[in-house]
């Protein structure tokens, strides 16, 4: 079956078997159109406006076709003996049916108009898209219908009967059916826009393009923001489907995992308002961004009628930071928000028993601290199920490498989440709806991607992610395309992050052709042959950001070294002032300064960078501060949710910057990496910093004699292809990835 035919969810509800019959017939009939990428279809398209009360529910089947327009098919699994008569729009049903009357055509018509409401304000689509509403009766033949003397209604209402589901018959019936909405066959641009609208994506305004002769970076950003991306079918599957159990989607940095998780949770909440759902994340500075993204999708799917209110403690949907209130890392007022850990404490009356008394607790990283405390809960308390679905963003930040902190060989945070989940059905106690994302090569703490067995134990995790659910919903998805970071910057991030061109050999990375292909690369050579020359290259179609073609004035990547820190920071200040004055970049969101190094080095350098900019009349913002130009935000005058401040340039250490992005990224303190270039976690910092960029990146450091700097320049010169002699790396981050 084509991946352009998307089944949202199968639940075993009444009527699903009838829908399956029509869906299968539709897939066969539109197969060729799907192969030509001129058709897209959904079984149970997510549309939940309530303004028509219970009359308008989601469309059973929605077909989006370049030639035929929009077709909504309302499927009724009735048999001829269920039908007593027809009066106008009302089909009268015999006693014992779930309703005395139904209005299938009127329902399909209103669903069609609700869908078209999504693009009423798009000039290219207004009055251009054909619209049809139809009724399908797979258990009734045309002859049976005629024998009941219902021929007149069949002439007025487009009906697909059970003996008319052969591909040619079905296409003929649809083509010959009456139009609810007139329009025309779409051109290529209109078709791209229609697919985007149906997927829920924003369609850029059709404003005159900026003059290509202009050299302003801001003009280039405007072009980028108006760029018309084509629909990503894999993203459609991930964002809209609701699996009846576990699911993981992993992939490359900037592939859109957080956005898709927010879309999925919105769809779940609207379709199943009785479910208790939690969306959990780790990076505090993403709190406002995630709420905004979830509300965007709630608005899209509910026609603006449903929004998430973080102050409503009774909400069935909860967006939770991993920590929350009442935790040992409670560093500011902003922590007084619900969190997964704090919610477990509260609901299980744990109180303050877990005080972090582990002898080395203060030295643990934040993920290790949280994992240790989750382990103590698991050891000392019986966990009560309280959620129907849990979705975890940034899953790589919630795993730990230390066996001492793990719970019976399992990852404590994931295992605690598992324990809080209700089974999908009483008959399947081990089938629970836990969904998580994983950024490959982006963890700042754990070095490897854990398998399901390492997360949940041998017995449960052995085959947890293998195969797919009914309807073709995959248990594990890998996303190779990057939309955020330009191709040259992304390949550089992988090349330097893994140490592919390092004189002493590769430090870390993927070691099979399949794993490289999963993140969007092509490989020439054989990883099984030690010492063989390999070529790893990234095709342009997997790097979707168009900046390399939009900006040709200067390189997207710049790297400079300086004699001392004072010279480095003086140049930095001048560059940012030029960005603001001549390039017309905005200080907030357009520009981001990322500081590299371990905690002590990075904190010291952060202060120096901030002071240098302030002394040059550039307002700065340190994440978690309440206002700009505060060099050292101190509790209680802090809020860890704050990352940007209007009118100020954010200066951030790497852990705060993770998950955020900017058009111009300055990476300062490269010497902190060069001084200890074999430290994989430090290289991971550089990888994360580079992949914050949507357009340009400037790297700088002091003392230009480091071998690491020579390696960096070789990586930059290699472009989108790396050639190197392969020897097993110090850490194989892909050796345990069970994505097959």
Key words describing this protein structure:
single chain, 740 residues, alpha/beta, six-stranded mixed β-sheet, six-stranded parallel β-sheet, 26 helices, 28 strands, ATP binding, nucleotide-binding, P-loop_NTPase
Short description:
The chain has 740 residues and is an alpha/beta fold. Helices cover 33% and strands 17% of the residues. The longest helix is centred in the C-terminal third of the chain and has 17 residues, at 565-581.
Protein architecture, described:
The protein has 740 residues and is of the alpha/beta class. It is built from 26 helices and 28 strands. The strands form seven sheets. It has a six-stranded mixed beta sheet with strand order 1-2-3-4-8-9, with helices on both faces. Strands 12-11-13-14-10-17 form a six-stranded parallel beta sheet, with helices on one face. Helix 17 runs antiparallel to helix 25 and helix 20 (565-581) crosses helix 22. The two termini are 19 Å apart. InterPro entries: P-loop_NTPase, UvrD-like_helicase_C. Pfam families: UvrD_C_2 (PF13538).
């Amino acid at each position: 079956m084509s991946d352009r035919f998307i089944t949202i969810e199968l639940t075993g509800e009444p009527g699903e078997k009838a829908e399956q019959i029509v869906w299968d017939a539709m897939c066969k009939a539109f197969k060729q159109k799907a192969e030509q990428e001129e058709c897209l279809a959904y079984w149970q398209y997510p549309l939940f406006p309530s303004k028509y009360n219970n009359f308008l529910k989601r469309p059973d089947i929605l077909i989006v076709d370049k030639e035929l327009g929009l077709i909504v098919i309302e499927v009724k699994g009735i048999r001829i003996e269920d039908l007593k008569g027809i009066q106008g729009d009302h089909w009268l049903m015999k006693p014992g049916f779930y309703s005395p009357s139904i209005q299938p055509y009127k329902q399909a018509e209103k669903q069609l108009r609700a869908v078209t409401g999504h693009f009423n304000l798009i000039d290219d689509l207004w009055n251009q898209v054909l619209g049809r509403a139809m009724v399908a009766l797979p258990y009734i033949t045309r002859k049976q219908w005629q024998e009941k003397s219902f021929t007149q209604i069949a002439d007025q209402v487009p009906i697909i009967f059970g003996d008319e589901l052969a591909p040619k018959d079905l296409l003929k019936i649809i083509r010959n059916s009456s139009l609810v909405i007139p329009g025309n066959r779409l051109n290529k641009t209109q078709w791209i826009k229609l697919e985007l609208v149906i997927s829920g994506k924003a369609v850029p305004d059709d404003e005159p393009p900026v003059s290509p002769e202009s050299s302003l970076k801001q003009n280039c950003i405007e072009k980028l923001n108006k760029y018309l991306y084509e629909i990503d079918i894999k993203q459609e599957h991930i964002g809209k489907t609701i699996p009846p159990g576990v699911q993981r989607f992993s992939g490359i940095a900037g592939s859109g995992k957080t956005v898709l998780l927010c879309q999925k949770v919105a769809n779940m909440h609207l379709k199943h308002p009785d479910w208790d759902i939690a969306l959990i994340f780790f990076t505090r500075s993403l709190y406002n961004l995630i709420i905004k993204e979830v509300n965007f999708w709630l608005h899209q799917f509910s026609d603006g009628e449903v929004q998430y209110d973080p102050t409503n403690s009774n909400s069935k949907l909860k967006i939770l930071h991993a920590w929350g209130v009442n935790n040992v890392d409670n560093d500011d007022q902003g922590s007084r928000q619900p969190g997964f850990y704090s919610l477990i404490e509260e609901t299980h009356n744990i109180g303050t028993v877990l005080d972090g008394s582990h002898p080395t607790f203060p030295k643990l990283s934040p993920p290790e601290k949280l994992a240790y405390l989750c382990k103590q809960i698991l050891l000392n308390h019986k966990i009560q199920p309280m959620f129907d679905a849990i979705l975890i963003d940034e899953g790589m930040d919630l795993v730990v490498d230390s066996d001492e902190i793990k719970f019976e060989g399992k990852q404590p945070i994931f295992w605690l989440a598992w324990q809080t989940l209700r089974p999908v059905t009483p008959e399947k106690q081990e089938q629970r709806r836990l969904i998580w994302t994983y950024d490959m090569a982006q963890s700042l703490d754990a070095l490897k991607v854990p398998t399901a067995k390492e997360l949940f134990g041998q017995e449960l995790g052995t085959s947890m992610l293998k195969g797919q659910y009914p309807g073709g919903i995959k248990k594990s998805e890998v996303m190779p395309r990057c939309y955020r970071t330009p191709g040259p910057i992304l390949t550089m991030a992988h090349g330097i992050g893994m140490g592919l061109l390092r004189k002493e050999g590769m430090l870390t990375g993927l070691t099979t052709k399949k794993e490289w292909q999963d993140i969007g690369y092509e490989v020439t050579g054989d990883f099984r042959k030690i010492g063989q020359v390999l070529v790893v290259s990234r095709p342009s179609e997997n790097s979707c950001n168009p900046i390399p073609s939009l900006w040709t004035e200067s390189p997207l990547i710049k790297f400079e070294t300086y004699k001392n820190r004072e010279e480095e920071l003086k140049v930095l200040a001048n560059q940012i002032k030029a960005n603001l004055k001549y390039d017309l970049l905005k200080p907030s969101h357009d520009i981001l300064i990322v500081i590299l190094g371990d905690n002590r080095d990075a904190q010291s350098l952060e202060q120096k960078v901030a002071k240098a900019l302030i002394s040059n009349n550039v307002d700065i913002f340190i994440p978690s501060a309440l206002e700009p130009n505060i060099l050292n935000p101190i509790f209680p005058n802090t809020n860890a949710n704050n990352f940007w401040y209007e009118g100020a340039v954010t200066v951030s250490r790497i852990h705060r910057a993770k998950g955020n992005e900017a058009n111009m990224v300055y990476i300062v303190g490269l010497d902190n990496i060069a001084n200890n270039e074999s430290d994989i976690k430090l290289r991971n910092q550089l990888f994360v910093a580079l992949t914050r960029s949507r357009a340009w990146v400037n790297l700088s450091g002091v003392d230009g004699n480091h071998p690491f700097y020579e390696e960096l320049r070789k990586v930059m010169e290699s472009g989108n292809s790396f050639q190197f002699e392969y020897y097993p790396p110090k850490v194989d981050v892909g050796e345990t990835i069970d994505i097959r």
